[in-house]
Amino acid sequence: MRIVLASKSGVRKEILEKNKIDCDVEPSNVDEDEVKAAMLNENATPTLISKNLAELKANKVSNKNPDRIVLGADSVIDFEGELISKPKSRQEALEILMRLNGKKHQLISSVCISKNGAMIWNYTDTSSLTMKDLNLDQIRSYLKKVDDKKLYAYGVYQIESGGKDLFLKIDGEEDSIMGLPIKKIKEYLNNLKW
Prior knowledge:
alpha/beta, seven-stranded mixed beta sheet, 27% strand
C-alpha cells in the first residue's frame, strides 16, 4: 500500500510512516491564501474552507497521478467562528497567541482521498483546545523556542513539542491536532480494494 501525500508537511509524512503507510510526497502548491480569501468573501465557515482545501490539494495532485491513491489535508483554527491561518511573521504569531490566550478554540483537520482527479473519501475532525491564561513574557518565551520553518509551516503551536504546555485542556486526538486524523484514514485504507 503506497499512497501519494499531497503535502510538504514533514509531520504528516511522519504520522503516515509511524502508522506503516508508505507514501511518496508531492506537494500540491495550491495557493491557500487565494482560496481562503475567495471563500471568506462567500461567507464560508472555517470547516468548509478546510474541507475544500483538502479536496483541492488531493484532486490537483491526483490529476497528475492516474490510478494512484492521493491524500490531501488541511488544518485551520476556528476561533469564535473566525478563520485563523498560519502566521506570516513572528509579530503575527504573537498577536494570534494573545487572541487565543485564556480562551477556547477549535482546530479543524480535514482530509480527502482522491483517485483519478476526483474525491473518493473525505473526513473532517474537530478538536477543542483551551489555552492557559499566560502573560506576554510566557508567550514570547514559547515563541523563542519555535524555529521559523515550523512556525510558518505548521501554525502558532506545535502540539507534538512544547506547544502542549500552552494548554489547560485538549479534547481531541493528538495526530488529528498535528494534521492527520490517522485512525479514520487507516480505517478507510484498510477497507479499500487496492
